[in-house]
Write a structure and sequence with these properties.
2 domains; alpha/beta; Rossmann fold; 296 residues
Amino acid sequence: MLDLADQLDWVVYGDNADVLPKLPDASFPLIYIDPPFNTGRAQRRTPISVVRDETGDRTGFGGNRYASQPQRASSFADSFDDYMNFVGERVAHAHRLLTPQGTMYFHIDYREAHYCKVLLDGIFGRDCFLNEIIWAYDYGGRSKRRWAAKHDTILVYTRDPHNWYFDQDAVERIPYMAPGLVTPEKAARGKLPTDVWWHTIVPTRSAERTGYATQKPEGILRRVLCASSRPGDRVLDFFAGSGTTGAVAQQLDRRFVLIDNNSEAIRVMQQRLAAADTRWVDSRGRLCVHRADGGA
């Protein structure tokens, strides 16, 4: 369906269950997926912009008044009767699609992480489990009845239990949490990240913010791509959402294949990934151009 021998980037509008079987074996050295978390509810976000208005509903700096203006909402269903079957069918294809030195990053939250770990062990083999990365963040809701959940889990698996690509020198270093305990030279250089990643969510006023309900920060994907792919490699994300994997791939001189069946995701990606060498197709490989309203 896709001519992966070319130098194009691909965005596919369709069900990944239909698209993945059509992709050739051992095509991707890196796969990152952020599937629905099976929260049992619809994920929805309505971004707000503000404009200066003396009769507005908000007060800003210097006592100036502003009016809120809701923008286009993004949403998708996040409830599955048989979540393990839904995930397993697709991850089995991910295993097939990895190159011999390839790596898959599987992004999930606390509700399903332990079940998914057992599932992925069965597909990849327990000896192909490389890391459990904890992405810790702040902001968002708080609970008075339990410890507030402020982390996601990223499970990392390799195609070969003895041979995989990993370049720690390509990863941006981070500050020491206690710089006084190391030499000034080490403090200035910073340290390599561990398997606990402290990184903020996408800030409300960030230039990278798209308004998509489950957008992940570019800093997380930058670390993944730098460590587990080389410049020129092609990366697959078949739950592409807002297209963060593609945006970071463009910045780092990687190619990408993104798949999503949500028209709102396609609309966001078209605005975010506009480039002459990106090919937009449907699940049958037919060229399609999506308007800003999500239509074809």
